[in-house]
Amino acid sequence: MTSFSIANKSYNPPIFNNVSGPVLVTGAAGFIGFHAAKALLDLGFEVIGVDNMNPYYDVQIKNDRTKILEAYSGYTLYREDISHIDGMKAIFEKHPVTSIIHLAAQAGVRYSLTHPFSYLKSNIDGFLTLLECARHQKNFKHMVYASSSSVYGMNTRMPFTEEDPVELPMSLYAATKRANELMAQSYAHLYKIPLTGLRFFTVYGPWGRPDMAAFKFVKAIHEGTPIDVYNHGNMARDYTFVGDTVMGILGALNTPANPDAASSQKTSSQGKHPVFNLGNNRLETLSYFIEVLEKHMGKSAIKNMLPMQPGDVPQTAADITRAQKAFDYAPTTSINDGLRLFVEWYKDYYGVESPKRVYSL
Ligand SMILES: NC(=O)c1ccc[n+]([C@@H]2O[C@H](COP(=O)([O-])OP(=O)(O)OC[C@H]3O[C@@H](n4cnc5c(N)ncnc54)[C@H](O)[C@@H]3O)[C@@H](O)[C@H]2O)c1
């Protein structure tokens, strides 16, 4: 197949000149990893998934995503922790993986205030394991990995561009993502391996994370419980539909950085390995986001207006010019369409208007 679809929305990715053999996807039972793995399987690639199925949020969703992926003959999942170097080495020895999409991480800004050590283990030790495995892998081609818009931290100049200084993280989560970029830069420099950082901006869509706003709000609207609206609804985000994010991931994977050619670039974010904003280029306020969800749920939310939370940023807006130029990244999904697809999935998966059944994309 030359296309993949997410909730009936069809995507036509580029012709893959630079991706071959099995693709390793870490965090494959996670939200974005599941969609990336499924897209690759639909496109005919063999996919090796790695995920430790940790209980940061409802493991049932991870198991249900995995059931869908395991229906493909080309899919193998290892329930492994990426910080276990021996286990990860064994996977790389067994499979001739040359392209890697590294998404496994301890996500979440607020959780990093209460569980700081999870971030060090998964996001720092785990990231180093991937770098080590990649650099020793025969015929290694390219690793793209998840960074985050949170690296822009206290920056106030909008939209965020990749040339901006990123020295002021506002949470440990953001600090680990920025550390990943610096670790990748050092490995690209030392070992001349192609590595690319992708700064995601608030990704949402079907099979989304229960700890994120879209999920929490829809659940609360359905159950008639209050929702916490931080910064009185005046926070603004560059919400990105997961299908558009997956197109960016695949486009980037197919465009390996050249560590030698890139070495003439001077800025800290570009260095010997590139980083790209994968946002949506359209800023929406939290209030509008809730209004659209209310429309699709056919029910009003009970709003608990609150001030800003420690570690949160009031606005994230992406300049996506660099990704547009490098691999034609062009997000197409409006917030109205994307949230409609999310609400349809939620209702179907949880049997909100009909008995629960297994949801398929
Ligand atoms: N969703 C977003 O809006 C967003 C925004 C910015 C960055 N990101 C980054 O994108 C990536 C994917 O995010 P997501 O939303 O799919 O999150 P997710 O939590 O749904 O997926 C991450 C997956 O990684 C797995 N994992 C965590 N630690 C692991 C470990 N030590 N070993 C093996 N597996 C492990 C988890 O079990 C989970 O299934 C993460 O790196 C996240 O930090 C996401």
Question: What does this entry look like structurally?
Answer:
- The chain has 361 residues and is of the alpha/beta class.
- It has one domain: NAD(P)-binding Rossmann-like Domain (Rossmann fold), CATH 3.40.50.
- Helix content is 38%, strand content 15%.
- The strands form five sheets. Strands 5-4-3-6-7-8-13 form a seven-stranded parallel sheet, sandwiched between helices.
- Helix 1 crosses helix 8, helix 5 runs parallel beside helix 6 and helix 9 crosses helix 11.
- It is globular, with a radius of gyration of 19 Å.
- The C terminus is likely disordered.
- The protein binds nicotinamide-adenine-dinucleotide.
- Nicotinamide-adenine-dinucleotide (NAD) binds next to helix 1, helix 5 and strand 7.
- The site of nicotinamide-adenine-dinucleotide has 28 residues, from helix 1, helix 5 and strand 7.
Task: Outline the fold blueprint.
Elements: E1 4-6, E2 9-11, E3 23-26, H1 31-42, E4 47-50, H2 59-70, E5 75-78, H3 85-94, E6 99-102, H4 111-114, H5 116-136, E7 142-148, H6 172-191, E8 195-200, E9 203-204, H7 213-223, E10 226-229, E11 236-237, E12 240-241, H8 242-253, E13 275-278, E14 284-285, H9 286-297, E15 302-305, H10 321-327, H11 335-349
Parallel strand pairs: 3-4, 3-6, 4-5, 6-7, 7-8, 8-13, 9-12, 10-15
Antiparallel strand pairs: 1-2, 11-14
Helix pairs in contact: 1-2, 1-8, 3-5, 5-6, 7-9, 9-11
Bound molecules: nicotinamide-adenine-dinucleotide.
Nicotinamide-adenine-dinucleotide binds at residues 27, 29-33, 50-54, 62, 81-83, 103-107, 122, 126, 146, 148, 200, 202-203, 209.
